[in-house]
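Sequence in, structure out. First:
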Amino acid sequence: MATIDYFERKLDEKKRLTIPAELRDEFVSGVVVTRGYKKYLHLYSKTVWDEQVEPALKGNILDEQTADINVQFRMGKIESPLDAKQGRVLLEKHLLDYAGIDKEVTAVRAGQYWRLMAK
C-alpha cells in the first residue's frame, strides 16, 4: 500500500478539514493543531504530540528559546477527537487567519506531522 504524503481538500461550511480515509487510523488518538513556524499550521496525531512534541517543549524554565517555542506551539493550540464518521477536524478561525487559509487547504507530510497551508 502506498503512503500518502500529500492531499488537497476544501473546508466545509463549518471550516472542517476532512482527513482522507487512508490516513484516519493515524489520528485515532485525536488531533492537535498548532501554528507553524511560518504562515502555516501543524497537524499532529495526539500520540505524536504527547510522545514527541510535548517532551521536546520541556526544558530549562528560564531559557528564552524554550519559552519562545512553547509560545509558538501553544498559542491557539487546539486538541480534539477526529470525527469518527466523516474523519473531520474543525480548524478554528484564528488558526485559519494565521495561516492565510480561506477555503482550500494543501497538506504535506513533514515527518511525523502534517503541514497545512493555503492552496
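Second:
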Amino acid sequence: MNPECPQCTGPAPLDDLSRRAFLSRFGMGLGSVALASMLNPARAFAGTPPMDHGVLGAPQFAPKAKRVIYLFMSGGPSQMETFDYKPVLNQRNGEPLPDSVRQGQRLTGMSANQSILPLAGSKFGFAQHGQAGAWISELLPHTAKIADDLCIVRSLFTEAINHDPAITFLQTGSQQSGRPSIGAWLSYGLGSGNANLPSFVVLITKGKGDQPIYSRLWGNAFLPARHQGVQFRAGKDPVLFLGNPEGVDAGSRRMLLDRLRALHEHQRDATGDTALDARIEQYEMAYRMQTSVPEVNDLSGEPDRVYEEYGPDSRKPGTFAANCLLARRLAERGVKFIQLYHRGWDQHGDLPAQIGIQCRETDQPAAALVTDLKRRGLLDDTLVIWGGEFGRTSYSQGPLTADNYGRDHHPRCFSMWMAGGGARPGHVHGETDDFSYNIAKDSVHVHDFHATMLAMLGIDHEQLTYKFQGRRFRLTDVHGKVVRALMA
C-alpha cells in the first residue's frame, strides 16, 4: 500500500536502492536519470518543481469552481438581523416563545433556566433586493448591492449547540476533533495551483479575541502533513519561522537544504520511509515561499480605487478588509482554499450595538471581494462562502428592553450565502417558520453543504476518501447529499 494514497493497492514496490541499482545497470543509465527526476524534481528541473495534482489527479467531473474563499463568521451571526426577515417577531415582541414552536427542543445552559423566553423582534429594517427580491438587513448595504450574485441559503441546520463542536463540524465535517479540515481535503484531492505557495492558506482578523480559534480547524489530522493550512499573519513575518536568521543569506540556506536533502535521502534509501520525501518537499516549499510570500503579501502596488472599494480598513494589515484583499491576490495566484476567520459574532447581550460593529467591519470588504473577483474574471471559477457555525434564538437571552436584547445559540436554522464558482446567482433557498426557529422548507444539513461544495469543485464527496485505522474517512462522513438547487 502506498502511504500517500491508501486507496492504491497492489504488491509492495522494491526499495529505492535496489531499483536504482537495477536501472543503473540497464538502459545505459537512462533509468537513473528518470528516477533522479522523480526523487529530486527541484534539482532535475533546474529549480522548477512539478505541480501537485493531488490524489485524484484531476476533478472527477467538469468543475465549476477551481478554488474556494471561505469567509467564516465565527460566533454565529443572527439570521434575524441579516438575511431572515421575520416581521412576526416585531408584532409579538415580548410574548413568550410558544411551546408549539419550541417543541421541547434543548436549550443551552445560558437560557434554559429563564422563567420566560420573550420573543425579540429585530431593531433593524429590511428591504428586498435583486431580481429574486431577497430580504437583506439595513446592516448590510454593500452586500445588498450584489444580491443578484448571491445564492442565499436560509435553511441550514447543524447538530451542535455550542461553539467548539459547531465550528469543528463546519470546518471538518465532525463535531469531534481529529478529522481533516475542508482545505486539507481539497489539497489532498486536487493538489495545488501554484508550486511556490501553499494550496491552503488561513487568514485571521487580528484583535478579535472573543473566542478561541484552534489550529486544528485548518489541520490535516491523519492526512499527510503537507496538506495542513498555513496561517499568514500581519506584520514583518507573515509566516512564522520562514525567514532566515541573522547572518544567514539565501546561498547559505540553499547549501544547508542541499545537505539536509542528502541526509534525508540517505535515510530514506536505508529505511524505505517515504514520509521523508514529504519532509524534503516541505523544506523546499518553505525555501520557495521566502520569495513568494512577501510578494503576495505586499499590497503597496494596489491602486487607490481598490482600497476605496474594500473600505478604509483595507490599508491596515490584519483587518478583515485587508485579508479580503489578500484573499483575492492568493486566488489570482492559484491557491486552492483560502480560509478567513472573523470572530465576535457571539452576541448573548447588547446585540444591536455589537452586531452593528461586526457588520461594519465585514459588509463592505466581503461585497468588494465578490465585485473585484467578478471584474477580473475570477468569480466564475472562485466559490466565495459567507457564514458562521449556527444561528441565534428568536427569543431574548436575558432581559428584553426597548432598545436592547441578546440571542442564544440556535442550531435548528441559520443563514449563509455563496457566490460564484457554480453557485446559483440571484437565488434564495429554503424557508424558516414565522419565528425563525424551525425550517419550513428545503433544509440543508452541514453534510449536504459540504457535498454540494465538493460537487462545485468537480468532486464526488463519496469518492474522496482516506483509509485510516481500518476505515475509509471522508469530509461528509457517511451522510450528505448534493443540493442541486444551489448550483447554477
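Remark: The domain at 67-241+303-486 is CATH 3.40.720.10 (Alkaline Phosphatase, subunit A).
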